[in-house]
Amino acid sequence: MKAAVFHKPGFPLTIEEIGxxxxxxxxxxxxxxxxxxxxxxxxxxxxxxxYPGPLVLGHEAAGVVEAVGSDVRTVKPGDHVVTxxxxxxxxxxxxxxGHMALCESPETQRGRDEAPRLTYVQKPMMQFVNxxxxxxxxxxxxxxLVAIRKDMPLDRAALIGxxxxxxxxxxxxxxxxxxxxxxxxxxxxGIGLSAINGAALAGAGRIxxxxxxxxxxxxxxxxxxxxxxDAREGDVVQQVLEMTRGGVQYSFECIGLKQTAEQAFxxxxxxxxxxxxxxxxxxxxxxxxxxxxxxxxxxxxxxMGSNRFPVDIPVLVDFYLQGRLKLDQMISQRIRLEQINExxxxxxxxxxxxxxxxxxx
Length: 361
Hints:
The model has no long low-confidence stretch (mean pLDDT about 95). The protein is of the alpha/beta class. Strands 4, 5, 6, 9, 10, 17 and 18 form a seven-stranded mixed β-sheet that branches. It has a six-stranded parallel β-sheet with strand order 13-12-11-14-15-16, sandwiched between helices. Helix 3 packs across helix 4 and helix 3 (about 155-175) packs across helix 8. The protein is built from nine helices and 18 strands. The protein has two domains: about 1-160 and about 305-360, Quinone Oxidoreductase, Chain A, domain 1, CATH 3.90.180.10; about 175-300, Rossmann fold (3-Layer(aba) Sandwich).
């Protein structure tokens, strides 16, 4: 099958033929229809997160089931599905206590004594976060996807697999924002816009969007922001403190930078909670005022929006079809797999909310 192959940081991905195995007992073969381009992939392409090549990246996808293994019970050929990188086993302590996004069980992957799911020049190829979506097909564990209703457009459904689940989930599942509460979101890319949309769905009383790109701030208003702050104009923290008369109850850092993570904590009111959603470079240390902790301010992380994706994703699909979840506005452009390097260039410049790769059907 055709795939975009990453070889090493600083070099463009190449479109090549790679091999894919047949489904094992608990595995599903999916024909990829659409895949979103996410900053997490860009971090690897640019060397911020070290991964060895050759590798097929991509993790925000939707497609159609082509074949299933003998023990698969959750989907069948012809089903439309959304994938999710936080594959779960279903019976470890994390899964049994409702924290499926934290599952680390190796049983959802093939063992060392088994044939690999993917091969490159007849040699085993590591699968990226259980998916490797920048390819015409995906071979995944059945707990790495969920079936959705067939009237949902798959190019928009793909975004739910990462950006929406991560952003909206951080608000609804991780932070548990309640109606009437105040929220600030730093960064209005795909995940930040989803956090804003999630805050609106949760009934937040005031939603402050923060970014340096005016077009993204305008887009944030469409997603539910009640106020916007241009980060180029003055002290962001001071502006939030003044606007809210003491700080927000919840802040969400959706970029992955030391400075903005520290700002997210500094703009909290007493009892407030800062949630770090963006991926910060490994080894970076944050500097926080410990005295502020005495006001019961908290800082926490969120992995994939603390999702329970077999439940969450169908609900988000319903929200989109009801007009409550904004996905059309998030897609800045649709491109072909052969244009993937151009898509990464635009992602680096921060010009777009989301590019979506659409495969020929």
